[in-house]
Amino acid sequence: MAEEVTLSGHIQHHLTNAKMCSTDSGLAFNKACSDSGFWTWHIDTLAWSIGLGLLFLWIFRRAANKATIGVPGKFQCFIEMIIDFVGDNVNKTFQGKSTLIAPLALTIFVWVFLMNLMDLIPVDFLPAFAGFVGETAFGMDSHDVYMKIVPTTDINLTAALAVGVFLLMVGYSIKIKGLSGFIKELTLHPFSTDNKLAMVFLIPCNLLLETIALIAKPFSLALRLFGNLYAGELIFILIGAVGLMQLPLHFVWAVFHILVIVLQAFVFMMLTIVYLSMASSDNH
Hints:
The chain is mostly helical. The chain has one domain. It contains 8 helices and 3 strands. Strands 2-1-3 form a 3-stranded antiparallel sheet. Strand 1 (about 20-25) and strand 2 form a beta hairpin. The longest helix is centred in the C-terminal third of the chain and has 45 residues, at about 195-240. The N and C termini lie far apart (about 65 Å).
């Protein structure tokens, strides 16, 4: 208990996900999942990300149902501005032809933005409420109740988003170029020659370089988003440790952090469009 009131204990508690896992004795939670291996579910990340995804769908469905041909209201104007913003960037960046890219880019931008936006909620508010509920309703020690409300501070979620983009990249490459064209792109570039014997020796080098370049793209997507939001959340947690003075300090950092929240959603969307445009290119 004493460890929890120290600064390191405070930080560690806020940076720990609520976990659920399966053990020999049944379902286990949090500390009991420390040695459960790979299949440990971060239930707070799943709940908040799915909930915010449903919120995105509800907002845009509501806007579509209430859309009018005449003078639009403020809500419709706001939604149309977002759609136009994403559509313009897709038209300028994506060189191929696909009806999937614009809705995908819109989903990524708004969903990642909403998940990032959770970072502006005071770090002690919802975790303290979760601890209160766990203590009063389930008889748990409040210090054993964990709640991370910013899904993008969990590397598992950002990696999952990046893996989805990676699978789309590979899928588009194979769809546009064919399986043989995709393999040729990995083995015959960037180094090529008309000498067939020399090309045989260049193929392993090309394969190594192109494979590294291909895999580095989802890695960069996942780590960039996670790193920026994790660092921002850590600063909020440190601010929260000062007590009653945290609110003015929280406000000052939040004003600056709004730029990071929007920028990281935009960067993730733009890199996704660029990577899919590159995968759809048949220039080679």
